[in-house]
Amino acid sequence: MSTNSSTVGQLLWRGPVCISWKQDPEGALYHLANCFLLLGFMGGSGVYGCFYLFGFLGTGYLCCVLWGWLDACGLDIVLWNVLLAVACLLQLAHLVYRLRMNTLPEEFDLLYKTLCLPLQVPLQTYKEIVHCCQEQVLTLATDQTYAVEGETPINRLSLLLSGRVRVSQDGQFLHYVFPYQFMDSPEWESLRPSEEGVFQVTLTAETECSYISWPRKSLHLLLTKERYISRLFSALLGYDISEKLYTLNDKLFAKFGLRFDIRLPSLYHVLGPSTPDGGPESEKDDEEVCEPSLSPVQATPTSVQHVSPCSPPPAATNLPAPLSRARMSRPDSGILGEDSTSLVLEDFEEVSGSESFMDYRSDGEYMR
């Protein structure tokens, strides 16, 4: 043990005794190789840092090969540096392969940066979503229909990448679909995986459009398999549907000056196109308005009713019109100060005679 320790001490403190030192320095290749090695070991992390690292190291080892072959004339120097240079080249080839595999088409790369990257969606998860739509970008020509009301089955989910799509119902304009919005999110959410249905609206391309589309069955299988992707789509679809609802609500506010509650049912039927000749619907509304003014004794026997219950009162009395029946029962609520539970369908009787919010037929009317 003492003999080994003494030998190590001699190697550390005294060092090997050189018989003679070379008087001439090494050639330029030796110094160039060390410069490349120094630059290579200063590389950083990440993919591009690895490119920098292995690029300079490989170049330095190649210079060492040339130095060992031409100046040092040592076979062992040449072999070791050849092995190190080959290892660096293999690492570079592996990095190029990884970058090529991670590269997405331009449309999908822009979609990832716009929609998924702000939500910190992993790239590998995004690739699974893209793979489900077979990495195909579909197109729509101007005035080409994506879906026809009452005819097109709901068998896919599509996301608009570029262009603008007009949504209409019964020939009446509803709203637009802009890039990076789902084209049929309400239809997707309206059906269960085992149900079938058709579109209730018509979607028409107003400009040259491009979009991606997921088949319904394939996407349902992916959402069932991947819980994270299911939650991601749930959040995206919920946000998209809420944006469409708020678009319709803002449109109503711009037309009538009242902020309606978008959660109210049958809003379209209440504010829909009114019949010009006062059809059965208008007569039914008039009857409903006038019925509360009747007492039970007056409403039961038909022979006593000498005056029509819906006839207007005399002008001398100066009574207000009965269209504000819902508001008279709630005197404490204001027009704009009501909460979401206080608004009922009767609140819209005063605007039901106006134009419908479905009457927008052109871009100019919608922008106004």
The main β sheet shows up as: 4 strands, antiparallel
Please count the beta strands (DSSP E, at least 2 residues each). Answer: 7
Question: Would you state the CATH class of the domain at 106-256?
Answer: Mainly Beta
Radius of gyration: 39 Å
Region (Disordered): 273-341
Biased composition (Polar residues): 295-308
GO molecular function, one term: cAMP binding
Protein name: Popeye domain cAMP effector 2
Features:
alpha+beta; 368 residues; single chain; Jelly Rolls; 14 helices; three-stranded antiparallel β-sheet; rod-shaped
Description:
- One of its GO terms (molecular function) is cAMP binding.
- This protein has 368 residues and is of the alpha+beta class.
- Among the domains are: 24-102; 106-256, Jelly Rolls (Sandwich).
- 48% of the residues lie in helices and 10% in strands.
- The protein has helices at residues 2-14, 28-40, 46-72, 75-102, 106-116, 123-132, 185-190, 216-225, 227-256, 267-270, 280-290, 296-299, 325-328, 363-367; strands spanning 138-140, 145-147, 156-162, 165-169, 172-177, 202-205, 209-215.
- The strands form 2 sheets. Strands 2-6-4-5 form a 4-stranded antiparallel sheet. A 3-stranded antiparallel sheet has the order 1-7-3.
- α2 packs antiparallel against α3 (46-72), α3 runs antiparallel to α4 (75-102) and α8 (216-225) crosses α9.
- The longest helix is centred in the middle third of the chain and has 30 residues, at 227-256.
- The radius of gyration is 39 Å and the shape is rod-shaped.
- The model is unreliable at 268-358 (pLDDT under 50).
